[in-house]
Amino acid sequence: MASLHIHPPLLYTAGIIWPPVCIAVVAARFATRNAQRVKLGLDDWLMVPALLLVLGMAATILAGTAQHALGHSTPKPIPGTELTATSPQQTVTRKAYMAMVLLETAALAFIKLSCIFFYQRVFKAGSNRVVGMLMYIIVGLIIIWGLGYFFSFLFACQTHFDYF
């Protein structure tokens, strides 16, 4: 059975390999639209902030791994202080986790919106009034979901950001 242990080489690989792949895919999307002489749509432009957020996630992974917080064993606390002791690595891990949750929530919202607008472009959903109305409802739900999750995670500890 394969090991599920996430160790530094895996994190470095993910943080180094995937950003160029994502950049290439988004660039190919824009190049294809240009080659086809098709006007860039909202679905295309929504991938730009999603890409920037994914790059932020990769930077978070690389920074956390470089600081020996992600992918490394947690230092053992002094006996008797297990519930209150924290190490610098644990602090970095909590901050990286919080950053990742916020970045991935926003990235997913942009990606979902891009998919819906792409669907609308491909199938000309605007030609049918009911389908067009459903599309706007879905867009509204995605925006509400994205903002709701983002701010619920951001203010999970009210405004005590030092908890992370």
Describe the structure.
It is a single chain. The chain has 164 residues and is mainly α. It has one domain. Helices cover 69% and strands 0% of the residues. The chain contains 5 helices and no strands. It has helices at 8-35, 42-45, 47-66, 88-122, 129-154. The protein is elongated. The relative contact order is 0.11. The model has no long low-confidence stretch (mean pLDDT 89).
List keywords for this structure.
164 residues, mainly alpha, elongated
Order of helices and strands: HHHHH
Helical run tally: 5
Radius of gyration: 20 Å
Query: Regions with pLDDT < 50 over 5+ consecutive residues?
Result: none
Shape: elongated
Give the N-to-C terminal Cα separation: 35 Å
Counted up, domains total 1
Total beta strands: 0
Mean pLDDT: 89
Largest sheet: none
Q: Which strand-content bin applies to the residues?
A: under 5%
The SS-based structural class is mainly alpha
Percent helix: 55-70%
